[in-house]
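step: validate -> pass
step: tokenize input -> pass
step: predict -> running
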Amino acid sequence: MSDDAYSSFLDQANQDTGATKASTKSSSAATKAVNTDIPVAIQKVDQYYTSEADEPFEPVSLKWSGKNMPSENEFGELVGHDSEISTITTKEFDPQGHYKEVLAAVEKSSDGKTRIYRVHQGKTRAEYYVVGFDGKGGRIVGLKAEAVES
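step: predict -> pass
step: emit ->
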């Protein structure tokens, strides 16, 4: 094949066909994480959750009119997710002590106690919410990270 013929072949192969491109975005349901002011201590956290995806922790600050932390069902409604939600212990979430900065920022921004919710998103994906109750601000504050666990 001559150089001109090959060049013409490449030009044809790279032409826009008008077809839509396949999305590489996950089909998991998006959850709500912020609808009120984010505490400064939460904004300063720059850490990644280690899984097969290594995703950054993102702020969570949601208005909450309850007197305590929400139940798993209430939390699902709060973040707009209707699949399985469970709570896990700090030891289960951080057995190696890698996320002390995350836990400390949540404790500082809330009434001092944290709860960790695992929002299941299919067989291999989950979102971890490390949150606390800010009674004065009437909100749930903390950080969340996505995880791929196959």
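step: describe -> Residues 62 and 78 are 8 Å apart (CA to CA).
step: cleanup -> pass
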